[in-house]
Structure formats: structure tokens, C-alpha cells
Amino acid sequence: MSVAEHYSYRVRWSGEDGQYVGTVTELPSLSWLSPERAEAFAGIQQRAADVVADMLDDGENPPEAIADRTYSGKFMVRVPPELHRQLVIEAADQHVSLNRLVSSRLGA
């Protein structure tokens, strides 16, 4: 099984090209155009698999699939001081932590 099987693929309509374009998040320089949605999806999957195989043949490490990564659940977000103040007040009014308030907003 190739690591590319776990990659994050997307197919969308491109008005500019008049076709569907398939992309892969882990390999942002790749795309595949097709007039059919299913063909764009199959094409980008095969292209990614070919690129990963070439990378492995050349002794390179392909990008790890986003879905296979481990996440800590922590990240820092910088906000303007006034927004920070407003969020702290709102959290206090709701009797919840700032973390719980922001987590609920992000998950909505």
C-alpha cells in the first residue's frame, strides 16, 4: 500500500479551465484536469502514487499523509488584544474557561 492512498484529495470545478481539477493537499504542486469528475479524481490519485514511487526510488521521503499524523491538540492563535479581552469576558459570563469557549467556537 502506498502512502499516497491516505493523502487528502479534492476535486472541484475550474471555470477557468472548463474542467474538473483534482488536487492533493500533501503534494500541492500536483493537479489533474479532466472533463469528468471521477476521471479527475482517479487521475490525481494515480499521479500522486507515481510521484511517491519516484521519490522512494530516488531515496527521498514522501510527505506524510495528514490523516496519519499525530496531533497534540494544542496550537497557538494570535488575536488582537481587544478580541482577547472580549473572549475572556464572554467566557467568564458563561462560567467556562477561555479554552472551552474557543474550542466550542472552532468546532461549530
List keywords for this structure.
108 residues, alpha+beta, Double Stranded RNA Binding Domain, 2 domains, 3-stranded antiparallel β-sheet, 3 helices, 15% strand, elongated
Structure, explained:
- The chain has helices at residues 37-57, 81-94, 98-107, and strands at residues 9-14, 19-24, 31-34.
- The protein has 108 residues and is an alpha+beta fold.
- It has two domains: 3-67, Double Stranded RNA Binding Domain (2-Layer Sandwich), CATH 3.30.160; 71-107, no CATH class.
- It has a three-stranded antiparallel β-sheet.
- The longest helix is centred in the middle third of the chain and has 21 residues, at 37-57.
- The radius of gyration is 20 Å and the shape is elongated.
- The relative contact order is 0.13.
- The mean pLDDT is 95.
Count of β-strands:
3
* Total number of distinct structural domains: 2
CATH architecture of the largest domain: 2-Layer Sandwich
The averaged pLDDT comes out at 95
Distance between the termini: 35 Å
In the sheet with the most strands, the strands line up as 1-2-3
Task: Describe this structure in a few short sentences.
This protein has 108 residues and is of the alpha+beta class.
Please outline the helices and strands.
Layout: E1 9-14, E2 19-24, E3 31-34, H1 37-57, H2 81-94, H3 98-107
Helix pairs in contact: 2-3
